[in-house]
Amino acid sequence: MDKGKMQHERALAPETLILSIIMAAAAAAICMQIIARIGITPNTSIIGAIVAMMLARMPFSSMAKFRSLERQNLVQTMTSAGGFAAANCGLLAVGIIYLFGEPGLVIAMLIGSTIATLVGMSLVYSVFDSDLYPGDAPWPPGVATAQAIVAGDQGGQKARRLLEGIVAGAIGTHFGLPMAGIGIVFIANIFAMTALGVGLVIRGYSQQLFGINLGATYIPHGFMIGAGLVSLIQAIIVIQRGSKAKKEVHTTSDKQATRTVSPAQARRAMLLHLGLYLAGALILAIISGIYTDMSVGTMIVWVLWAGISALLAAILVGLAAMHSGWFPGFAITVIFLTLGLFMGFPGLPLALLSGYVASSGPCFADMGYDLKTGWLLRGEGQDAEYELKGRREQVIAELIGGVVGMVMVALFMNMHFELDMLPPVSQVFATTVQAGVEPGIVRQLVMWAIPGAILQAIGGSGRAMGILFATGLLINNPIYGIGVLLAVIIRLIIGTEPMEIREAGLIAGDGLYGFFSAIARSFF
């Protein structure tokens, strides 16, 4: 694709903006319904891209503008932002407070969730294509969306391969096979995916293997704490030293592209956004009134913990998403909530902390995927000025989509409250806060943090093996783990070339089938 032939598009251009806002609002309403009924949210990026591609092929001159791949990228960026912000951030956060028994504070929580969500979007924009979050890292859903857009534009063999993958993905998903996971294995870091698969299998069959139910223990949380601490140390080292460690990449060139964000810029961005998260926590404390129930010292500690937790959660969720296509926002938030329990915070501040921290990671991951799509479409960072301008338009689209998603939450959350249509995760957080501290948990966390730290240290920052193994332990989905491990074996045998573009089709087919079947299950 000749980047020079692509017209640089603007997110605020009327045609793009109007369609994108409509798509973002629709994605928000649908995803809120789906997460309440099903408990998960589908990735709507591919849906936005397909709508834009369909418009480009309509026989009207006014639709010709949507033939621009960059315009399609902006539409899918705003679409996915609306869906993720509304469901995974806004509705989840206000649901915690409502179920905790404080309906009068849902507006305060929505404001806090909006701040954390928008700061998370800004953070990933500021550090994308740095040494910590390289543009040439996997970001699997972003690769899949980019390949779908290019295949749809060019047709021919690429389109046939994509269609083959979509059909196989949809059929396999119908029969309960983890087709997205299989596709991701052929894009992502093979070590990271192996660690994820092993973790998922161990968690799923822990009763049969070890005679204990890992889901009823804090062993997975301990693993994640240890791996997370080492990962954060590794991240600091990468930022400080500007590490050029080799990573498994998937680009059209064997030469790694020059980074567009320097270590110094990444360091400044982290500090700036830590300040923003702290400011957001302070605002949440003031508008919710919880500062009146805490001493000055406790209030200061709460603000510091909420701000630091939000930043660390975004960093860890982003690393997992970048390497594997998973964003374990729920699992990581539980860890910071658990640590907050041991710090002795009262119940309501902990509930607000949960909603605030839970809102920081999902859209970090979502925008990382969308920026990866744009990075590929704009020529993989070869023209730094062109890439940065396009990335700036994408963050505008993402932020607008996030605001649209939160507006939709404000409009429809009372309906969800009345119909008892709230994310199951919200109930988990509310119940955890109300249950309080259980004896022996600290010992369990410390004990199992050690092997988590060792595994993360052995794998290094470029593989995130400790984080992905812990992610697998935290999620009860053994079939996905088996599918991932079988795909790893197949990849070792045949390589990645036979699956090129087809792997994107598997992810797209899984996503499309899951999206429309979830709609059917939610509304009918």
Kindly summarize this structure in a few lines.
With 524 residues, the chain is mostly helical. The chain is 74% helix and 0% strand.
Describe the structure.
- With 524 residues, the chain is mostly helical.
- The protein has one domain.
- Helices cover 74% and strands 0% of the residues.
- The chain has 21 helices and no strands.
- It has helices spanning 14-37, 45-56, 69-100, 106-127, 140-154, 156-174, 179-185, 190-204, 206-210, 219-241, 263-288, 296-324, 329-342, 347-358, 362-377, 384-418, 424-435, 441-459, 465-474, 478-494, 502-523.
- α7 runs parallel beside α20 (478-494), α7 runs antiparallel to α21 and α14 runs antiparallel to α17 (424-435).
- The longest helix has 35 residues, at 384-418.
- It is globular and about 65 Å long.
